[in-house]
Amino acid sequence: MDYEKTAGIFFLVLGLIFILFPMFSSELVSIIVGLSLVFLGISIAFTGYTLKEMRKEIAIIVILIGILAIILGILFIFYINAISFIVAFQFYIVGFIMIILGICGLLSKTGKISNFTSILILLMGIVAIALAIFAGNNPLYLAIIIGIVLIIEGVAYLLDD
Question: What does pTM read for this prediction?
Answer without folding.
Answer: 0.60
